[in-house]
Amino acid sequence: MKSNSLLHKSVVVALLIAVCGVGSVNAAQVMKVGGARDVPPVYFKDAQSVLIGFDVDVLREIGKRIGKNMEFQGIDWSEKSVLLNSGKIDIIASALNITDERKTSYSLTRPIIDNGYVAIVRADSSIRELDELSAKTVCILNGVYYISELMKFKGKSGPPATVITGTNEFCLTEMLKGKMDATVIKLLAANYYMKFNPGSFRVLPGKLTTDKTAFALRKSDAALRDQFDKVIAEMESDGTMAELRNRWFDQNE
User: N or C: which end of the chain has fewer CB within 10 A?
Assistant: First the structure.
């Protein structure tokens, strides 16, 4: 399998992007969104390299309701805090997990998605359960909070032998080549990769974590965060959020 076949890329998918109002927009009306560019179906590139996904559609709708135009870009996930605090981006997206540390570092919105980390292996792997990750080579997205926890993970024979970081596609591609034993990845992303690469992967039973995700703004943008929360609550009440979840997620996930 070639690495560029890992993502389901379709012109049709691009049509799912919500359309914002046209016309000139001044700088005060623009918010720059940054996220990891390969976290399907939340934040990823289509065949034309346009960023699409659940987070993209939610933020476009928030922007429409508060009078902001959202501009999306892919970032190095390990640089997200530096980019946010320097003003190079205004929002962190792409399934950012809510943690106690992040509550002190960012202005986090109310939760958007229920998610969690799982381990995915090759379909023909002899690994059958999470405890068997001991003494194995495991890959995970660079810059995520769970890296330190993964290094301390205790299976049947102790922690993983090696933890390697990279993009999700790097991890999965290298795993298919036999260079990694497993990839730790968000459940929704794992399900997406399996759906569009049938017979290639298998998720081990159970979750390593149960998480909720949110959008992050600067601590100084607490008032703007409150506007986001108000709109998110409205979107939950009026059915918009359910519609977007149905669009992007398998409701059995």
Answer: N
The model's pLDDT over 173-203, given as tens digits with 9 standing for 90+, comes to: 999 999 999 999 999 999 999 999 999 999 9
Whole-model pTM: value is 0.84
Supply the DSSP symbol for 88.
S
Spatial distance between the Cα atoms of 82 and 69, rounded to a whole number of angstroms: 22
Burial 55-79 (b: 16+ CB within 10 A, else e): bbbbbbbbbbbeebbbbbebbebee
Tokens encoding 188: 């929704």
| H/E element, 108 | strand 107-108
Per the DSSP assignment, residues forming a β-bridge with 140 are 165, 184
211 three-class SS: strand
Paired strand residues for 34: 73, 92
DSSP secondary structure of 130-192: GGGGTTSEEEEETT-TTHHHHHT--BTTBS-SEEEEE-HHHHHHHHHTTS-SEEEEEHHHHHH
Q: State how beta strands 182-186 and 137-141 pair.
A: parallel
What are 31's two structure tokens? 């918010």
Rg (CA), the chain: 18
Q: How far apart are CA 182 and CA 122, in angstroms?
A: 8
Provide the residue type at 55 as one letter: D
The token duo for 210 is: 């149960």
Host H or E run for residue 113: strand 113-115
Element (H, E) at 229: helix 222-238
Q: Which of 175, 180, 181, 183 is nearest to 3 (CA)?
A: 175
Cβ within 8 Å of residue 237, ≥6 positions away: none
